[in-house]
């Protein structure tokens, strides 16, 4: 696919640059990753590994492409850049220009490539920096709306609201009938971030709001606030909370509690994207419909939209035209109709690509907003989540008035992060890239450390729970945490199997890890510890040839304790349903790794855990 580089007229006047002086691990000049010609793509969660990665491999079977799990935080890529190992393609979901400013010198300017001309102008209005560069692009939009139980509305003779005044009336009528109008999960930071912007969505979409947003996205130091605008925003936020009959008790409502209240008919409205609504519909004998967010200052309504992911390219790709063309082909694949559906995990996708028709046919209730492009792209700077939570909880508890809540949000947004002390001083360096034996040394070190900490003889985990190389020198708590996939963390499980059952587990994992994901190439091979798996590779895939423990063939009769993750536990449960599996309570892969390193100890050395024969 030919990609002609050319200058394009700027499509918008928004902005995106980014800040954050990030504390990090000690510098190391030693390169720990292999420098080869394959394309490396970091995806921010493992759901994308299961959805979009196989599709891209299918579209480009002759291209050498490696997908690695990342974290939903641009600091992970700052960490890589400090060690000259920024991947070719990076993605995050929670993002604003202020979060990625230190990466700006190292990213490609998409404004110089044809791909930007395929985007609607509103979709990239906040993705242009002060140098007229567009270094990040959203892939597609996911509509986040109010979900209403229409059956419950009809039962009580309550009109489905079409503007804010009617929303107030509906909430009051449900409240008078002893039903909670809206069970929003305000124990979660993302919902507090949403509620401020959705409650005052008319303010964020007017000229003052757009001007503030443009400035916030390009703030080089602190985010400047328009006091007049933000006092209106908090007045409307406070009013929305009161009109919706939210109170102190909502502070502790998490996603599970809020969902359950709605499913049981104890609340009339919840919120979520189309996949959430589909899941709710399966659980409820009721008709569900979508309601947009209403402006309090006009009769306008809007779809609150969350980008499924934001993507950037390492500008080193421009030194290798063939590799860059492959990367651009991958980007084209992602913004295709099928690519967007896979990334958004289903129907109800707001296409940002002018070449792709609307994919909202199966999402009734938002026709007017979509037709009129009344779509608001959420502001999601990393600090905005904590800031929103503190401010909204202050209003709900009664401990803050509107002015105090605004002051709190502004203060948290501009609060300087305290300098982190080193958690551990790594004496060795291990790479997350494949070594000559097709193993990942960093992942092996982490898994072996966790296995030994939990007194297990063996361990088996998918590759996509491990994100980062381990660099020699001092490293902070947050950077240690980024070495595992915190955005897609997994519980840990313990089982006892004989050698034959261990072999069956590995055999089945290689064939089919779960219904959505299986091993198709060397990059997707599992991480093992306490054992070595010898694998045959053929055109049809991979198969287990042999398995050794302590350099000897595994004893088929002997019992072994084995540590598992969600995926490997599911495979075991499928092939051996009677097997007793114990979950390690309050322990995840990430928390176990952080806990081990918090003791100041060195991680275990990597093992020679895999060998691929062709």
Give the SSE layout.
Elements: E1 39-43, H1 46-59, E2 65-69, H2 75-82, E3 89-92, E4 137-138, E5 141-149, H3 150-155, H4 164-176, E6 180-182, H5 189-199, H6 201-205, H7 207-217, H8 227-243, H9 255-263, E7 267-272, H10 274-283, E8 288-291, E9 293-294, E10 301-307, E11 310-313, H11 321-334, H12 337-344, H13 367-371, E12 375-377, H14 382-397, H15 402-413, E13 422-426, H16 441-453, E14 458-461, E15 473-476, H17 477-481, E16 491-498, H18 499-511, E17 527-529, E18 532-538, E19 541-549, E20 552-553, E21 559-564, H19 566-575, E22 581-588, H20 589-598, E23 610-613
Parallel strand pairs: 1-2, 6-7, 10-12, 14-21, 18-23
Antiparallel strand pairs: 3-11, 4-11, 5-7, 5-8, 5-10, 9-10, 13-15, 14-17, 16-21, 16-22, 18-19, 19-20
Helix pairs in contact: 5-8, 5-14, 8-15, 14-15, 16-20, 18-19
Keywords: Cell membrane, Lipoprotein, Membrane, Palmitate, Signal
InterPro entries: 5'-Nucleotdase_C (IPR008334), 5'-Nucleotdase_C_sf (IPR036907), Bact_solute-bd_prot1 (IPR050490), SBP (IPR006059)
Domain 5'-Nucleotidase C-terminal: 448-567
């Amino acid at each position: 696919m030919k990609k002609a580089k050319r200058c394009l007229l700027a499509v918008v006047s928004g902005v995106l640059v980014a800040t954050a002086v990030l504390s990090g691990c000690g510098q190391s000049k030693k390169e720990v990753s292999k420098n080869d010609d394959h394309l490396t793509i970091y995806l921010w969660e493992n759901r994308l590994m299961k959805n979009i990665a196989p599709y891209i491999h299918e579209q480009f079977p002759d291209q050498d492409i490696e997908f690695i799990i990342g974290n939903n935080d641009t600091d992970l890529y700052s960490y890589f850049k400090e060690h000259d190992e920024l991947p070719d393609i990076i993605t995050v979901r929670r993002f604003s220009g202020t979060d990625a400013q230190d990466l700006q010198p190292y990213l490609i300017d998409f404004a110089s490539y044809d791909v930007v001309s395929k985007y609607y102008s509103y979709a990239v209005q906040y993705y242009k920096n002060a140098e007229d560069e567009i270094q990040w692009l959203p892939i597609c939009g996911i509509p986040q709306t109010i979900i209403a139980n229409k059956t419950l509305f009809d039962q009580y003779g309550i009109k489905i609201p079409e503007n804010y005044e009617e929303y107030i009336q509906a909430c009051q009528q449900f409240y008078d009938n002893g039903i909670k109008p809206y069970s929003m999960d305000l124990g979660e930071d993302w919902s507090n971030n949403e509620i401020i912007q959705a409650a005052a969505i008319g303010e964020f979409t007017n000229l003052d709001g757009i001007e503030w947003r443009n400035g916030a996205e390009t703030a080089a130091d602190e985010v400047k606030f328009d006091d007049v605008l933000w006092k209106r925003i908090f007045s409307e936020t406070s009013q929305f909370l009161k009109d919706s009959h939210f109170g102190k008790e909502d502070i502790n409502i998490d996603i599970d509690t809020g969902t359950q209240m709605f499913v049981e008919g104890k609340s009339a409205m919840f919120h979520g994207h189309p996949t959430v609504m589909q899941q709710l519909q399966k659980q409820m004998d009721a008709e569900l419909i979508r309601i947009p967010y209403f402006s309090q200052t006009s009769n306008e309504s809007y779809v609150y939209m969350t980008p499924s992911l934001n993507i950037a390219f390492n500008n080193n790709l421009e030194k290798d035209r063939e590799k860059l063309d492959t990367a651009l082909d991958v980007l084209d694949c992602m913004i295709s109709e099928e690519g967007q559906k896979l990334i958004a995990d289903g129907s109800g996708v707001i296409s940002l690509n002018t070449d792709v028709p609307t994919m909202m046919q199966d999402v009734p209730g938002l026709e007017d907003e979509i037709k009129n492009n009344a779509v608001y792209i959420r502001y999601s700077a990393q600090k905005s989540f904590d800031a929103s939570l503190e401010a909204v909880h202050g209003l709900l508890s009664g401990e803050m008035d509107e002015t105090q809540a605004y002051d709190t949000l502004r203060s948290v947004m501009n609060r300087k992060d305290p300098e982190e002390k080193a958690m551990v001083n790594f004496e060795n360096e291990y790479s997350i890239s494949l070594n000559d034996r097709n193993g990942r040394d960093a992942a092996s070190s982490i898994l072996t450390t966790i296995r030994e900490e939990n007194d297990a003889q063996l361990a088996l985990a998918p590759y996509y729970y491990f994100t980062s190389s381990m660099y020699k020198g001092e490293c902070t708590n947050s950077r240690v945490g980024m070495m595992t996939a915190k955005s897609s963390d997994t519980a840990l499980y313990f089982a006892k199997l004989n050698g034959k059952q261990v072999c069956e587990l590995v055999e089945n994992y290689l064939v089919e890890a779960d219904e959505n994901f299986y091993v198709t190439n060397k990059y997707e091979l599992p991480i093992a510890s306490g054992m070595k798996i010898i694998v045959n590779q053929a055109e049809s895939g991979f198969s287990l040839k042999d398995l050794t423990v302590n350099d000897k063939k595994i004893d088929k009769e002997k019992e072994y304790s084995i540590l598992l993750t969600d995926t490997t536990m599911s495979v075991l449960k499928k092939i051996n349903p009677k097997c007793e599996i114990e979950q390690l309570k309050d322990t995840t892969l990430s928390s176990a790794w952080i806990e081990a390193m918090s003791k100041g100890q060195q991680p275990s050395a990597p093992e020679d855990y895999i060998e691929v024969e062709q």
